[in-house]
Amino acid sequence: MTPRTPADLNTAFNLADLERLGRAALDRNALEYYASGANDEHTLRENRAAFSRARLRPRVLVDVSSVNTGTSVLGLPLSSPIGIAPSAFHGLAHADAERATARAAYTRGSVMTLSTFSNTPIETVGAEAQGRFWFQLYLLRDRALSRSILDRAHAAGARALVFTVDAPFLGRREANERHRFALPAHLSAPNVASRDELAQVETDSGSQLANYFQNLVDKTFTWRDLDWLRGQTPLPIILKGILTAEDAHLAAEHGCHVWVSNHGGRQLDTAISSFEALPEIADAVAGRSEIYLDGGVTRGTDVLKAVALGARAVFLGRAALWGLAAAGEHGVERTLELLEDEFRLAMALCGATRIEDLTPALVRL
Amino acid sequence: MTPRTPADLNTAFNLADLERLGRAALDRNALEYYASGANDEHTLRENRAAFSRARLRPRVLVDVSSVNTGTSVLGLPLSSPIGIAPSAFHGLAHADAERATARAAYTRGSVMTLSTFSNTPIETVGAEAQGRFWFQLYLLRDRALSRSILDRAHAAGARALVFTVDAPFLGRREANERHRFALPAHLSAPNVASRDELAQVETDSGSQLANYFQNLVDKTFTWRDLDWLRGQTPLPIILKGILTAEDAHLAAEHGCHVWVSNHGGRQLDTAISSFEALPEIADAVAGRSEIYLDGGVTRGTDVLKAVALGARAVFLGRAALWGLAAAGEHGVERTLELLEDEFRLAMALCGATRIEDLTPALVRL
Amino acid sequence: MTPRTPADLNTAFNLADLERLGRAALDRNALEYYASGANDEHTLRENRAAFSRARLRPRVLVDVSSVNTGTSVLGLPLSSPIGIAPSAFHGLAHADAERATARAAYTRGSVMTLSTFSNTPIETVGAEAQGRFWFQLYLLRDRALSRSILDRAHAAGARALVFTVDAPFLGRREANERHRFALPAHLSAPNVASRDELAQVETDSGSQLANYFQNLVDKTFTWRDLDWLRGQTPLPIILKGILTAEDAHLAAEHGCHVWVSNHGGRQLDTAISSFEALPEIADAVAGRSEIYLDGGVTRGTDVLKAVALGARAVFLGRAALWGLAAAGEHGVERTLELLEDEFRLAMALCGATRIEDLTPALVRL
Amino acid sequence: MTPRTPADLNTAFNLADLERLGRAALDRNALEYYASGANDEHTLRENRAAFSRARLRPRVLVDVSSVNTGTSVLGLPLSSPIGIAPSAFHGLAHADAERATARAAYTRGSVMTLSTFSNTPIETVGAEAQGRFWFQLYLLRDRALSRSILDRAHAAGARALVFTVDAPFLGRREANERHRFALPAHLSAPNVASRDELAQVETDSGSQLANYFQNLVDKTFTWRDLDWLRGQTPLPIILKGILTAEDAHLAAEHGCHVWVSNHGGRQLDTAISSFEALPEIADAVAGRSEIYLDGGVTRGTDVLKAVALGARAVFLGRAALWGLAAAGEHGVERTLELLEDEFRLAMALCGATRIEDLTPALVRL
């Protein structure tokens, strides 16, 4: 896991190249943790295939000498509608862990979503991100601990709370179970547990993480409990893991924002792909809340299609991790830079100069 | 065919793993008998592909701390809507034959459907199943023999009669014909014939079984004869092999339950897959009868999709046999356990805590 | 090209097996002539794929103890709705050439369509077929020769005239052109030309046949000329090569029968598959004429699907030639027998006992 | 890059054969420049796949003894509706460069579209084409230079101005960037720059061409500027790169003709294929302008389908270059000849004798 020197990044012309570099930098334990999807990985594959199938209908003879990819999410200006999705344990990818990711997000004018299960304390990440971060929460059975985490996130400068709603249980990433994924001894999850607590998790079978998670997370939380959650934090709340018009409507009714996601194909296999779910969700939300999306975004045209169909921003999960594994902070920067460049060019070639120009008419599903 | 020790089961994380173990434990004669479908095996493949294509629309923010997979079939409580379909000759897979399968069904709170063509007498199986079994009938040309079999099944504790209606003739499993499938000398079909009778079957060409079956089974039976059948047994009657709304309606009109099946792709090749046939059948039955389904079920999400679209339970054919071949009784138990665990997790990740929560809105076809 | 002994046929369990045997018996010149389709062979492949995609909806609980596959075409009783399509040069496959094919058709109660370009004189074939043959006509620019051929066909006992309408020019079977297909010196086309005439065909480039055909065939013939043709022969006229509702309607208006065909994918590549064209043609004909179909039939379920959707009979092109190449007369018999057996079983498993029971409700497209 | 002798062309029976010969004659720099599409090359593949998927519905019993493939574009008679699309740098393929292409277009009664980025001056090409050429314009930021190019094109005998509207920026052909495509030292772009100017282009990263193009081309041009352009030249204006009904309507409103194109899949990846875009464009134009199409045409049936759905002519990009690379002028002639022959045969086999007979009823999408 020696970090690659930035020089290697010159051989990366797209995110597939960065994925290759990132995979090569990881050992099996880490690679399987990042790469695997649930069960037969149908949804993992469909997330990308659904984007590829959609056809663009580009417009011509527009003055595209100046293309502005800038947008904002919940009032935070972004250089482009591309953020970083939460993922656990960046320390598996690089010694700088979440600090590197946060610095890259700040440098690129993006936003990082910090996972509850980071290897770096919230405060450290908050200092690096300088306001360009959201905090992802798994609601813990220990509500006092949950509240303290929320307080820390707010104090550290998080701009929003991303509340994950699709993981009362962890999906079965069979590769992880087969090879008994475990967090290496030098890493911990300082937001929620000491290293000693982690070491006590029984691993008679399957993945250490799955067993640990099973005990930690609250499975009772419902729409009615959202009022309680809102009372714990002044941050806007985003519900991450929405895949239906019905739930998107409920989210908007409860004053929450909507993050379309199937958890990168890691939870419920054969769940609908994020991109296929987006149109009915955009219809249901009808402008009441902001909509985000993750899952399968690897090309600038994917970003464009998602935004055209109603997403305010897309978020990178594995793509950011491949960059991080390849070259730390610079690798994540390069990931964001390549995708933003592709997105800007795609806008120009579609005859769009501002985010507002991206409308459903650009896409034939 | 030395049975594998239960230790091997620890390497099985899903039904595909068990299939691998089971196949490895079988000789060619037995493997081809279990594995083959009719002709070009289009329907065999489509049974599974149809499930994979269907997309789930999971709901979130439901209290899933307690998920109850329990249901009942014809009043018999089941730990989950997963039973064992009838298949002939379990002795090909394991020395304990149908006794092992029956014990596993009992242990797991499931239900086994015993084939007319078992290698174990009805009474022996009935004793092991302790009420957790149904009896599958091929109506024989010898009606007196048919009646005696029905009487024995009832006396042995069978809870229902599963009347197979899709096999007046056997489909052509060409691998079996090519290699002249024959029942090994140490096995018999004690419910219908002595070993001597079996030995007398001519096998000049093709499969011994097909020739034998050809002479044994009644091909004249029609809807009008159902009244006669009902007079022979007090058991509820399930018609197994229904693939159309028309026949499902007739079944309900005749007071029978409906088992959607294409015989595991072994009868009429290019027949519609069970899962694709289910929606029109659920519409036609309209709650008048119970509906079951077999064909292609290998994942918990398959179970969930079938139940969501109207099946009261699904039944495992080959999947149970791979478990039986891999490790006898424990192998079948493990098959049921793995699938039930996957189904429970799929329910939780769909926001469903009871069987009643599984509705068509969860599935996008 | 030593004919295989009939013993080999015991290893053939389906038409794919016979194809394997037949291909092995042919040299490249003959194999490419039979096997090739036009250009990229899209239509050649689609002819078969279209059948495979169609799903059957079998009915159950019908008395199928007696299944009658018998039907008739233009009053000629057939043991099943399976005939032999015209194809040129059976002498490439077997020394007995069209005599073998005719004898097999007679023996099996089928009907053979004799090609204008046979290697055997009409009269010889007529004697072997004993009334079980139709004659296929390419209208020649030499109308006197055409008339004399028609007279000979009628005198030889042909029951119908199959007038090929899709080949004013030959399609480009590129394999034939690449390797300069030529009729071997020991074969001739006695119905239309002497061996000397054939030998004079220039073959500077491409296929000898294509060059020859180019000069021989009348390209001016239109719907208006059908009256002339009807005046030349008392035989009923079947138009072979219809692929649209529009032309099927015109055929019926002109008192002709309709043979749905794309010439086995040998003429216009990417032309619609025969099976996909059938429904609109059956609608357009609306019972006024008989409808036949060739193209891609290799399974009994293919026969059933075509008949269910409106074909009175299907015809075998390459399939018969593989049988002929494999074992002469017995090979063709075996082809017909295997397919008829499959068709009978498919009927029984669909709950159909007579041809009249085969209706569109059995097929989901 | 030794040009092949015309003898080699005898082994080419279709455009795929010519492609093989042409590819073999090129070095990597040139091959990647011609062959590559943007990014993942989805659109590059779809251009061809969309043609293959469309099914033909051929008509029969038409007098096809005389088939006339002749048509005209903007009043210029063509032997068939097949022209040559603009592509840069024919000198990469053959020492005779655009002179060879122009001579072939003239000889075959076709029309060549000369690229702004030719390796041969406009006047030289004009002399060879003898009126059978159109001129393709990239509008340059240097409007004086643009005007001078337009004047030269008109003076050289160009019959129309093909104004490329889909390339304000170059798409990312990643193979070119990866291997740093550069124009060899012996070639220049005499219409727009001296060799010295080209040599000064920085190539720190990526493709020399992309960097050069970036600075040269005007990105501000809009529909409103078309009036200015019309004032600069008496030639009819064709807008090349239209993919939507909306833009096709605008083109017709502005008195321009419409060239349906996605730049051979080289600009915006996952843009709709040309053939799939054609129907809505033909509807929108409604006869007000002529419609042309490029992208994926490799078979006579492709030409026929495009014309049937509303294209007045199709244009060959890579296909002409493969012929040029294979054998210079004769190679391009052979490309045009093979495709015209296939198109004529396809017309005959569809029952069409004149271009006017090609209507949408011939195609099932």
UniProtKB/TrEMBL annotation, chains A, B, C, D:
Residue ranges the record marks as coiled coil: none
InterPro entries recorded: Aldolase_TIM, Alpha-hydoxy_acid_DH_FMN, FMN-dep_DH, FMN_HAD, FMN_hydac_DH_AS
One Pfam family, short name: FMN_dh
Cofactor: FMN
Signal sequence, start to end: none
Taxonomic superkingdom: Bacteria
Keywords: Flavoprotein, FMN, Oxidoreductase
Domain FMN hydroxy acid dehydrogenase, residue spans: 7-365
Family that this chain belongs to: Belongs to the FMN-dependent alpha-hydroxy acid dehydrogenase family.
Protein name as catalogued: Alpha-hydroxy-acid oxidizing enzyme
